[in-house]
Amino acid sequence: MILITGAHKAFALYKAIEEGVNHMWTVSAFQQHPSCLFVCDEDATLELRVKTVKYFKALSEVHHRLSLMGVHSKLIEET
Question: Which GO terms of the cellular component aspect does the record hold (predicted)?
């Protein structure tokens, strides 16, 4: 889990998510980790494209709805 908060970290979040893996921004290597989770506040998203923010907010909303319906726990039990 990577926690990024505040507008002063917005550029780092941009480099971590929207650009490719780069040795100058080692946090970008987490793009290739299968279980990495970026957690950020609204201020940290200021450098991200609007499309990127909307995409991840929609994913979060779908995940929340599925967990309310119990779908997530059923899928885990089946695997």
Answer: cytoplasm
